[in-house]
Amino acid sequence: MMTVPEYFGCKAFDDRVMKARLSQPVYESLRKTMDEGAKLNLSVANAVAQAMKDWAVEQGATHFTHWFQPMTGITAEKHDSFISPAPDGRVIMEFSGKELIKGEPDASSFPSGGLRATFEARGYTAWDPTSYAFIKDDTLCIPTAFCSYGGEALDKKTPLLRSMQALNKQALRVLKLMGNDTVKYVRTCVGPEQEYFLVDKALYDRRPDLIFTGRTLFGARPPKGQELDDHYFGSIKPRVAAYMKELDEELWKLGILAKTEHNEVAPAQHELAPIYTTTNIATDHNQLTMEIMQKVAARHGLVCLLHEKPFAGVNGSGKHNNWSISTDEGVNLLSPGDTPHENAQFLVFLCAVLQAVDDYQDLLRMSVATAGNDHRLGANEAPPAVVSVFLGDELTGILEAIEKDAPYAGVEPTQMKLGVHTLPRFARDTTDRNRTSPFAFTGNKFEFRMLGSSNSIACANIMLNTAVAQSLKEYADRLEGAGEDKSQVLHDLIRETVRKHKRIIFNGNGYDDAWIKEATQERGLLNLRTTPDCVPCLLSEKNADLLTGHKVLSMAELRSRCEIMLENYTKTVSIEALTMIDMARKEILPAVEEYTTSVAAGVAAKRAAVAQLSCSYEAGLVSKLSQLTDQIAQRTDELELAMVHLGDESDVMVQADYVRDEILPKMGSLRAAVDEAETLTAKKYWPFPSYGELLFGV
Ligand code: ADP
Ligand code: MG
Predict the structure, then answer these.
(1) Residue 629: which domain range?
(2) pLDDT per residue over 460-481, tens digit each?
């Protein structure tokens, strides 16, 4: 049997393979492209393509595909085989540099939000050499960006790469101005912790809501939920353990650094965390991880649910985006250091993040907005919809001392003068275990916790990178204007940033209603509760200036993204509503009706036998169930009518608002009646597996 180090990355065309299979000049040229973004010439591309194809064919691959991330949020691929006819009637396996660099998927059905008129429906894909190619299902997958012929981004990777460049540019400026001349580039790194549910496939197959929407639209609470906290970090059941083992193996083969697997808070809920890596690669890997999770589940008779809220009444699933900035020299700029210089650097970058999160709260909230995630945020199980930053008491104290020019009252009072004094030693705040903060500093990284489990992490990181690039740009501009003595300017800069942005710092309990009140009424922070509330902010002047100014998204791209997000919201909820109507009419009403009739028939039979029997239990049940049947039928009709009305609207914003204000509440009241009926209907009549079976059935 092969050991993990022996098979790790065996399906990735990684640095090891490149070194072994490319000539030294080709390797060096490719490395330069990967590390520094140098242009790649066709002869290098040809050599790389040849080596990639040979390697892939040896591994049994027959096809290649440009693997990309359209705005549907999942990945897309179109397979071409390597075969090429030879004159003697046989075939040879071929793959050229051109095919590696550029592809033209007929991608007219991907959402473009009006960017790609149908007469020029072809978009093209362009190789991203910074992310390793890999083999999946006998196909060589080449990570690519996806653009329209006008050059507009139609995917999530393009703006992500642009945002990394923007941050790199501004961070380098700041570092140089602070006297650091050796750094060549700066990168953001991400480790996304991924939550998910596992349910039994046979049970899943009997739930149209899970099949069509990924979440249960009906379902009465089981007698046991997550109240005992006995699942969290609990011992892993054999079937789940076998799943996790195979999942790790599959991910490791692809070179994905799967590290931690454990049970989560809700029954049937689990988490997987990889070791952090460059944002762009972390994003590709997270997309792949989600795909492989679902594939491996199928082999174990399971279904992996990535929806943010598969079950009412127990926790939903999110994704924690652990984010830091590091240099090519391996220095983490968000790590407090030991020297005055390192400390000044740390504080500057810390302040840049504080300022970014405060200035662009709305963009960060928007970057995680989906119909599914709306069920979590602000629902006392995930961070509130109000964005704030947790720093911990000690670091907050240090910033306050700088702001007020007062000594920091630590173990020994220390005057804080940037560039002269070292930061007082402070312990990593243990309250970071408090999971209620949407954006927490956890020692040497920030953890953005608002992402939904099914979200691509690209969007959140695009906004985060760009917003921080903007703070850094302002700092760099100011430092450039300063003469030789930069440390006074730095000091003032930090003091002013703290003064101006400290309202975003909150170390308390984010679930507390008092906080929401304080945040919105006293501090003036935003509370954008739903997707339609926050998506339009993408087009506000402040945000459009940010994103166009750093060349991350153009105005046309912003408009298209806004439209796609709203459309996606409306479509998602519409599918849910239609599924509910279908389930109610075709299965729930007939089931309740049948059960009621059988109880009523029992009453009649009993009374025929003994005339004076009261049968009050049965009679009560029959009338209660009849009432509920009427309610269910009526609410189904109302929901259907609202759906007809929705179809009459054509403006995406009006539609999304209507969905939030009319459709979702109607779905909620239909569900309430159905769930009550479920608790009164005999098990053998109920058409769907119960919450109890789904949550405890694996
Ligand atoms: P926990 O949140 O349970 O304490 P860790 O903080 O160790 O766990 O790690 C959570 C995730 O954060 C992992 O994916 C890990 O690789 C990632 N992580 C750790 N350090 C960094 C860093 N400097 N930058 C980005 N991600 C990091
Ligand atoms: Mg964590």
Answers:
(1) 568-696
(2) 999 999 999 999 999 999 999 8
Same domain (yes/no): 144, 176: no
ipTM above 0.95?
yes
Are 586 and 511 within one domain? no
Residues with Cβ within 8 Å of residue 485, at least 6 apart in sequence: none
Domain-terminating residue out of 154, 189, 214: 154
Same structural domain, 191 and 128:
no
Question: What is the position in ligand 1's atom list of the atom closest to the CA of 193?
Answer: 14
Task: For residues 169 and 40, state if they share a domain.
Answer: no
Residue showing tokens 């972390």: 282
Residue nearest atom 11 in ligand 1 by C-alpha distance:
191
Rounded to whole angstroms, the Cα distance separating 149 from 235 reads: 53
Question: How many CB atoms lie under 10 A from the CB of residue 553?
Answer: 25
User: Which of ligand 1's atoms lies nearest the C-alpha of 335?
Assistant: 23
Q: Which residue type, as a one-letter code, is found at position 239? A: R
The conformational region for residue 419 under phi > 0 = left, psi -120 to 50 = alpha, else beta, is left
Atom of ligand 1 nearest to the CA of 332: 23
Q: Is-contact 159 462, C-beta < 8 A?
A: yes
Q: How far is the CA of 264 from the centre of ligand 1 (A)?
A: 17
Contact assessment for residue 188 and residue 487, using Cβ atoms and an 8 Å cutoff = no
Q: Phi, psi (5° rounding) for residue 334?
A: -100, 15
pLDDT for 398-427, tens place per residue? 899 889 888 776 655 566 665 555 556 666
Residue with tokens 């740009």: 473
Q: Taking Cα atoms as reference points, which of 24, 13, 87, 90 lies closest to residue 53?
A: 13
Q: To which residue do tokens 């790199």 refer?
A: 168
Nearest CA to ligand 1 atom 13: 191
Nearest alpha carbon, ligand 1 atom 17: 191
Residue 335 near ligand 1, beta carbon < 6 Å: no
Is the same domain home to 352 and 274?
yes
* pLDDT tens, residue by residue, 482-539: 877 788 888 899 999 999 999 999 999 999 999 999 999 999 999 999 999 999 999 9
The two tokens of residue 445 are 């990284």
Nearest to 284 by CA among 307, 262, 251: 251
What atom in ligand 1 is closest to the CA of residue 275? 16
Cα distances (angstroms) measured from residue 83 to each of 51, 95, 420, 612:
16, 9, 66, 85
Provide the residue type at 279 as one letter.
Answer: T
Tokens found for residue 97: 């540099």
Would you list the DSSP string of 319-336? Answer: EEEEEEEEETT--BTTS-
Decide whether any atom of ligand 1 lies within 6 Å of the 273 Cβ. Answer: yes
Any idea what the Cα angle at residue 345 is, between residues 342 and 349, rounded to 5°?
Answer: 140
CATH number for 122? 3.10.20.70
Domain final position from 100, 134, 154: 154
Is 332 touching ligand 1 by the criterion CB < 6 Å?
yes
Kindly give the distance from the C-alpha atom of residue 70 to the centroid of ligand 2, in angstroms, as a whole number: 28
- Ligand 1 centroid to Cα of residue 276, in Å, is 7
Q: In total, how many domains does the chain have?
A: 3
Backbone torsions φ then ψ of 478, nearest 5 degrees:
-70, -40
